[in-house]
Design a protein that fits this description.
The chain has helices spanning about 5-25, 30-40, 60-75, 115-120, 130-135, 150-155, 165; strands at about 50-55, 80, 85-90, 105, 120-125, 140, 145-150, 170. The chain is of the alpha/beta class.
């Protein structure tokens, strides 16, 4: 194999490795829809227009890409049960001073648990480890099947109480 072919093969492998995580995130719109519907299962939960702060770290390209995907999925507004989500990008460092949001969507690799707890904000991520570690109250995923994981301690820390019907559909940790 020539040097030029080696470079082409290496470039192709690199592209596949970079694209693989993106293809694994099959449909961000479905994940965001599930997150919005999950908010409607909160006791005294939000209704109507809810601003979802999309928390990202500008130094992490994957975090920025996920933020862009969430904001694109929501567009000008996304109806999810009794709520209509709108999105607002929020740098992780800005969460302590944040106001005007109903919940936070935390991109992969970002941890704002302490600041969200202080603000009593529900945190939602797409990475199951976010919820299992306690960095998020809840994680949602639509692929390969719908899975919602709620961290009991993180939920209690922000005062989130989910309706009994919802608790039968989720996995609590």
């Amino acid at each position: 194999m020539s040097n030029r072919n080696n470079r082409g093969a290496i470039a192709l492998c690199a592209l596949v490795l970079v694209a693989a995580p993106l293809s694994a995130r099959a449909d961000m719109a479905k994940d965001v829809q599930i997150a919005g519907r999950a908010l409607t299962f909160l006791e005294n939960g939000p209704t109507g227009k809810v601003v979802l702060g999309v928390v990202f770290d500008p130094a992490k390209p994957a975090s920025v890409a996920e933020k862009n995907a969430v904001i694109a999925a929501i567009g000008g507004g996304m109806s999810a049960g009794a709520v209509t989500l709108t999105a607002r990008p929020v740098e992780a460092s800005a969460v302590p001073g944040l106001s005007g949001v109903g919940a936070l969507y935390v991109t992969t690799g970002v941890n704002v648990a302490a600041a969200a707890k202080a603000k009593k904000l529900i945190t939602i991520g797409s990475d199951t480890s976010c919820a299992t570690s306690g960095a998020c109250v809840m994680s949602v995923s639509s692929e390969p099947k719908v899975e919602i994981v709620v961290n009991r301690a993180a939920a209690a820390a922000v005062g989130a109480v989910f309706k009994a019907a919802f608790r039968m559909m989720i996995r609590e940790v």
